[in-house]
Amino acid sequence: MPENTTAIPLVPMTPDAVMDVFDHLRAVSVDDTEFAGELAAAEPRMPELIVDVVERIVVPVTTVGERGPEPCDDSFALDALGSVFVTTLRTWATAGPHTAEPLARTALHLITRLLVQDDEEPADVLEHLNSSALHQAIQAHPAPATR
């Protein structure tokens, strides 16, 4: 059985990056391809930012760590699958800014399949993820003090 593969903590995103990527995800979720395209053109790192969001969803769910019962073969398989998924998306993101929309659709599909409960709307879950990510980003990157 593989050794424990506890992940290195993710570096918090900046507030601007969080706002950009979630604006893009919302635009793609309502099929506003024109606005999504404008957002992607304005932020050439959009594909990487989308993968950062996906990684923040996948890693806590799939990584073998200190949580839960004793790890088993299935735990390590899930860990490997999560790692392969994120690595594949990262490779896809290097193809250029034109990958932003398909990556966003993949992220939205993941969010819908894994996080949306029967009584929830995908838009509400996306908004919750946005709020959580923005809160973490603001805590990690506080605005400079003004006099």
Structure description:
This protein is an all-alpha fold and 147 residues long. It is built from six helices and no strands. The protein has helices at 15-29, 33-42, 46-62, 73-93, 100-115, 122-140. The longest helix has 21 residues, at 73-93. Mean pLDDT is 85; it is low at 1-7.
Quick structural summary:
The chain has 147 residues and is mainly alpha-helical.
Proportion of residues in extended strands? under 5%
Largest sheet: none
Helix/strand order, N-terminal first: HHHHHH
Helices, by number, come to: 6
**Can you give the helix content as a percent range?**
55-70%
First-residue to last-residue Cα separation: 57 Å
* SS content category: mainly alpha
For the secondary structure, the number of strands is: 0
- The Cα radius of gyration reads 16 Å
Shape: globular
- The average pLDDT score comes to 85
pLDDT < 50 runs, ≥5 residues: 1-7
Give a quick set of tags describing it:
147 residues, mainly alpha, globular, disordered N terminus
Strand and helix map with partners:
Blueprint: H1 15-29, H2 33-42, H3 46-62, H4 73-93, H5 100-115, H6 122-140
Helix pairs in contact: 1-2, 1-3, 1-5, 1-6, 3-4, 3-5
